[in-house]
C-alpha cells in the first residue's frame, strides 16, 4: 500500500501558516495545490515567477496548462495524476512550457493528498527549475563528445585571444604533439614554438594578418607542427572568430587536424603522376621514333613494288610478287598509322576538321577503301541504307576511318566467303545508327563487353590467324566519342557472328552536306619533265625513289648529305626537292630554310618526305618553307599527281 500523505495532519493555525510560507516566502520552489480533478486551487509567488502565470491565470485551470503541446497531446498530465493517485506520488524531470512559450527543465514531485480516512482530497505539486543545471550537463556532455571526436579525428583545439595574445589549448592538442602534460594556456610565441622552423615566418604573418583583419576572415592553412621527439607532421588548420557576448572581445578558435598521412600520400601521388607523365611523354616520343624507323624501310620497299608494276615484265611471278609486297606495305603502313592515331586521340591532341556530312557518302567512301580486302577474301557485302537523308557534323576523313576499321574488322574475323551487312537507320530526329553485321567467328559476352578497349583481343590461336595489335576498335570508340557519339558491340557467342554499331548525333537535314569529291585520276603519262633532287640519308630509300621517278621520266639527283645537297642545288637548281626531315648533319627544315634563302634555289618546290607524321611535324615543315608534307611510305599515285601539277622552271 503506497504511503498516505494526509492533508489535515496539522492544526488549523499551523496549516494556515504553512500555506502562507509556501505561497509567499519560498522563492526558489514553485508550490501549488489541485483538487481531485487536477484543477489548480492555490498558486505561490515562486510558481508565478518560474512559469509566468499569475494566480488569476493558473487558479481554476487544469494542470495541463503547464505542459508542452506534445505532452498534452499524449495525455501526459492525466498520466502523471494517475500515477500519483495510484502510488501516492510521481516524480520526473522533463521540459515544461512557460506562459511566453519558452521551455525550462523542471524536476517535479506530484503528491496525492488524502484525509484521515484515506479519501483523496487533492494533489500538491513542487517544481524546481534546473535549466542551468541541465545546460551545464549538456555542455559537459558536448565537451566530452567533442573530446571523443577530436581524438578520433586526430585533432586538437586552441583559442587565441588577440587582446592578451594568449592561446588556450586542449589536452588533445598537446597529446597530438607527444606532450602528455603541459600548460593549457600559453603566449602566442610559446605556441609558435610548436611550428616547424621552416613555416614559422609564414604562420606568424598569417596570425598578424588575422589580427589586422579583425573578425572578417577565417584562418585556414596547412602547417607543419613539431612533436616532442623532434619529428614534424602536417596539420590542416581552420579557425573562426567568435565572442561570448557583444561586450566581450573577439577570439579566434581553431582546430588542427593531423593530415600528415594524407599529405604524404598526396606527395607520393604527385611524384607518381609526374613519373607517369614523363613515361607517357617518353612513350609518345618512342612511338613517333618507332613510326619513323618503321616507315623508313617501308619507303624503298613501296617504291620498289611500284617500280616493278611499271616495268613490262613477262614473268607473272614477278608481277604477283610486286602486288603482294605492295599489299603488305599498305598493311604495315595502316598499323603504324593506327598506333600513332591511338596515341594522339588518347592524349587529346587529335584535331577534327568538322563539316556537315551525308552519312551515305561516308559509307560509300569506306566501302571503296575496304573493297580490295573484301574481294580478296571473297566476302559478300550487302548495303541496306536508310532512304532518309542523314546529315552529321563531323570530320569526313575520321568518320570514313571509323567505318573502314569496322568493315576491316568484320572481313578479318569472318572466314572466306562470308557475308557482311552494313546498314544505316535514322532514329527520330536525334541519331543515326550505322551497323556492321557479320557471320564470322563471333565472341563470348565477356569479350564483347570490352571489345572497344585498347589492346582487347580474344585468346590468340597458335597460328595467330586472328592476330593484330588490338588498336582498330579502340580507335573507333575514341573517334566516335570525339564526335559526340557512342559505340556498341554484341554477339550471341563464338561462331555466331558479331554486330558493331555506331550512333552519331544528327544535325538538321536542312544543313546542306557537301557533295562528295570524286577522286582525281592520276595522269596516265608524264606531261612535264622535272629536275628533281632527292635528299635522304637512307641510301636504299633515296635510290628506290629516284628509280621510280626516273621511270616516270624525271631527271633525278640524289644526295645523302644536307650540305652537299645545298651546294649542288645552287650549282644545278632543281624544280622540286624531295627532302627527308631526319637528316643527321642539318635537319630537313633547316635545309628548306637555306634553300629558300638563296636566290638560285628560292623558286624550287619543296616537298617533305619523312617518317615523322605528327601534326606538329607538319606545322613545322610548312613554316620552314615546304609546300607539301608527305609521310613515308609515300603513296606513288599521290606523288605522281603532285608532280604533274608542277611546271618546270624556264
Largest sheet, described in full? Answer: 6 strands, antiparallel
CATH class of the largest domain: Alpha Beta
According to CATH, what is the topology of the largest domain?
Answer: Heat Shock Protein 90
The CATH superfamily of the largest domain is identified as: Histidine kinase-like ATPase, C-terminal domain
Mean pLDDT: 81
Report the count of strand segments.
23
CATH architecture of the largest domain: 2-Layer Sandwich
Distance between the termini: 136 Å
Q: Could you explain how this protein is built, in words?
A:
InterPro entries: CheY-like_superfamily (IPR011006), HATPase_C_sf (IPR036890), HATPase_dom (IPR003594), His_kinase_dom (IPR005467), HisK_dim/P_dom (IPR003661), HisK_dim/P_sf (IPR036097), PAC (IPR001610), PAS (IPR000014). This is histidine kinase. It is an enzyme of class 2 (transferase). Residues 90-142, 219-271 form the PAC domain. One of its GO terms (cellular component) is plasma membrane. This protein is α/β, with parallel strands linked by helices. It has 5 domains: 5-129, Beta-Lactamase (2-Layer Sandwich); 145-258, Beta-Lactamase (2-Layer Sandwich), CATH 3.30.450.20; 275-343, Helix Hairpins, CATH 1.10.287; 351-505, Histidine kinase-like ATPase, C-terminal domain (Heat Shock Protein 90), CATH 3.30.565; 531-644, Response regulator (Rossmann fold). 43% of the residues lie in helices and 23% in strands. It is built from 20 helices and 23 strands. The strands form 5 sheets. The chain has a 6-stranded antiparallel sheet with strand order 8-7-6-11-10-9, with helices on both faces. Strands 1, 2, 3, 4 and 5 form a 5-stranded mixed sheet that branches. A 5-stranded mixed sheet has the order 13-15-16-18-17. Helix 10 (260-310) crosses helix 16 and helix 13 packs antiparallel against helix 15. The longest helix is centred in the middle third of the chain and has 51 residues, at 260-310. It is elongated. The model is unreliable at 1-8, 459-467 and 518-526 (pLDDT under 50).
Amino acid at each position: 500500500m503506497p504511503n498516505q500523505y494526509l492533508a489535515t495532519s496539522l492544526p488549523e493555525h499551523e496549516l494556515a501558516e504553512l500555506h502562507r510560507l509556501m505561497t509567499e516566502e519560498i522563492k526558489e520552489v514553485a508550490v501549488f495545490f489541485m483538487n481531485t480533478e487536477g484543477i489548480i486551487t492555490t498558486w505561490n509567488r515562486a510558481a508565478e515567477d518560474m512559469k509566468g502565470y499569475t494566480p488569476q491565470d493558473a487558479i481554476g485551470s487544469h494542470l495541463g496548462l503547464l505542459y508542452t503541446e506534445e505532452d498534452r497531446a499524449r495525455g501526459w498530465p492525466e498520466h502523471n495524476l494517475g500515477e500519483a493517485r495510484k502510488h501516492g506520488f510521481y516524480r520526473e524531470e522533463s521540459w515544461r512550457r512557460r506562459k511566453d512559450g519558452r521551455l525550462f527543465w523542471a524536476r517535479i514531485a506530484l503528491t496525492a493528498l488524502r484525509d484521515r480516512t484515506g479519501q483523496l482530497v487533492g494533489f500538491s505539486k513542487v517544481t524546481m527549475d534546473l535549466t542551468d543545471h541541465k545546460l551545464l550537463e549538456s555542455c559537459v556532455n558536448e565537451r566530452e563528445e567533442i573530446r571523443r571526436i577530436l581524438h578520433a579525428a586526430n585533432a586538437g583545439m586552441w583559442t587565441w585571444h588577440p587582446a592578451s595574445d594568449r592561446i588556450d589549448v586542449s589536452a588533445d592538442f598537446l597529446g597530438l604533439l607527444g606532450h602528455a602534460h603541459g600548460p593549457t594556456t600559453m603566449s602566442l610565441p610559446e605556441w609558435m614554438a610548436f611550428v616547424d622552423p621552416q613555416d614559422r615566418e609564414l604562420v606568424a604573418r598569417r596570425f598578424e594578418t588575422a589580427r589586422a583583419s579583425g573578425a572578417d576572415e577565417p584562418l585556414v592553412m596547412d602547417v607543419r607542427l613539431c612533436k616532442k621527439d623532434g619529428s614534424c607532421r602536417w596539420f590542416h588548420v581552420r579557425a573562426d572568430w567568435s565572442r561570448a557576448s557583444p561586450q566581450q572581445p573577439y577570439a579566434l578558435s581553431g582546430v588542427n587536424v593531423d593530415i600528415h598521412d594524407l599529405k604524404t600520400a598526396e606527395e607520393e601521388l604527385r611524384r607518381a603522376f609526374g613519373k607517369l607523365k614523363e613515361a607517357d611523354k617518353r612513350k609518345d616520343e618512342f612511338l613517333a621514333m618507332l613510326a619513323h624507323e618503321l616507315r623508313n624501310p617501308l619507303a624503298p620497299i613501296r617504291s620498289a613494288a611500284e617500280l616493278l608494276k611499271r616495268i613490262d615484265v613477262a614473268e607473272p611471278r614477278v608481277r604477283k610478287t610486286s602486288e603482294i609486297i605492295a599489299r603488305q606495305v599498305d598493311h604495315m603502313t595502316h598499323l603504324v598509322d593506327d598506333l600513332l592515331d591511338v596515341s594522339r586521340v588518347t592524349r587529346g591532341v587529335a584535331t577534327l576538321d568538322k563539316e556537315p556530312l551525308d552519312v551515305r557518302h561516308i559509307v560509300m567512301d569506306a566501302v571503296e577503301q575496304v573493297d580490295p580486302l573484301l574481294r580478296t577474301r571473297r566476302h559478300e557485302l550487302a548495303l541496306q541504307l536508310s532512304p532518309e537523308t542523314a546529315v552529321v557534323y563531323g570530320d569526313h576523313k575520321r568518320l570514313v576511318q571509323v567505318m573502314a576499321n569496322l568493315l576491316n574488322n568484320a572481313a578479318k574475323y569472318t572466314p572466306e566467303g562470308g557475308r557482311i551487312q552494313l546498314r544505316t537507320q535514322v532514329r527520330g530526329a536525334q541519331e543515326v545508327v550505322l551497323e556492321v553485321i557479320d557471320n564470322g567467328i563471333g565472341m563470348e559476352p565477356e569479350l564483347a563487353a570490352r571489345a572497344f578497349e585498347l589492346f582487347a583481343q580474344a585468346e590468340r590461336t597458335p597460328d595467330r590467324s586472328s592476330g593484330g595489335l588490338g588498336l582498330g576498335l579502340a580507335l573507333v570508340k575514341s573517334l566516335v566519342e570525339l564526335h559526340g557519339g557512342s559505340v556498341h558491340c554484341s554477339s550471341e557467342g563464338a561462331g555466331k557472328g558479331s554486330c558493331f554499331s555506331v550512333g552519331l548525333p544528327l544535325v538538321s537535314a536542312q544543313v546542306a552536306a557537301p557533295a562528295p569529291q570524286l577522286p582525281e585520276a592520276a595522269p596516265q603519262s608524264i606531261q612535264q619533265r622535272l629536275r628533281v633532287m632527292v635528299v635522304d640519308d637512307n641510301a636504299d630509300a633515296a635510290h628506290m625513289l629516284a628509280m621510280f621517278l626516273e621511270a616516270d621520266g624525271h631527271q633525278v639527283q640524289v644526295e645523302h648529305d644536307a650540305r652537299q645537297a645545298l651546294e649542288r642545288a645552287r650549282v644545278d637548281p632543281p624544280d622540286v626537292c624531295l627532302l627527308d626531315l631526319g637528316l643527321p648533319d642539318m635537319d630537313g627544315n633547316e635545309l628548306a630554310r637555306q634553300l629558300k634563302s638563296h636566290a638560285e634555289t628560292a623558286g624550287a618546290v619543296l616537298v617533305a618526305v619523312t617518317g615523322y607524321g605528327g601534326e606538329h611535324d607538319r606545322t613545322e615543315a610548312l613554316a620552314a618553307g615546304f609546300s607539301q608534307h608527305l609521310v613515308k611510305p609515300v603513296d606513288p599515285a599521290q606523288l605522281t599527281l603532285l608532280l604533274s601539277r608542277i611546271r618546270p622552271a624556264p
